[in-house]
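Q: My labmate handed me this sequence with no annotations at all. I'd like to see what the chain might look like in three dimensions before we decide whether it's worth expressing. Could you predict it?
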Amino acid sequence: MTTQVAVVGATGRLGAQVCRVVESMEDWAVIARLDSQSDLQEVLGADVVVDVTQPGVSATVVDFAIEQGLPILVGTSGWSAERLKGLEKKVTDHPGASVFVVPNFSLGATVQNLLAATAAEFFESVEIVETHHAGKVDSPSGTAVRAAETMARVRQDRGGVLAPHSEQSARGEQVQGIPVHSLRLHGVVASQDIVFGGVGETLTVAHHTSSQDAYAQGIAVSLRYLLTHPGLTVGLERALGVSVP
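A: Here is what I predict for the chain of 245 residues:
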């Protein structure tokens, strides 16, 4: 039996990649390709919905899928911890709903987050520099936000994070007290450096993506995971069987 997928945001970079991955999977097929302006009624008839739209559109797509009883994989940025709390309530209010939010489908980015959580136990000084292609409409990236939120949780019982001169705009946007610097440049897919400072040393946990193909395995794993895990799940690490604080 073929699992039928509707991709909302199919005209974007990630959306096109999702379509290619689904078409390469045995017994899976894309039956609807929507852009951010499409009528969401077009997803009806699918077994699974994938949302890879824009932050301002994503919540509407997710709400529609939940109301229609359709499992949805969310790869759109902008789902901060605060927004996820509201989403969790909606999912709870709809028994059987399945929503899997994945800030980054890259295996390397997931491992980076795991390593950063470990390093945050020992370093109070940390900043993030993230770089994406010039066409990315949001900043900071969802990956950077999730990394900052993760490290802030680790630091919560360890004296917090040191971020001097936070009132200066050039110090980056504060995410859970951690400065995040966003670059948007031509010639880049995605890159993120998490830089820790200690006494007489620095530690950089770096991840660089050179091709959209880096997301392929994570997309496939996430789709299969979604079908067997109802409720709200956040982070590719859950589908990989590892945990982040």
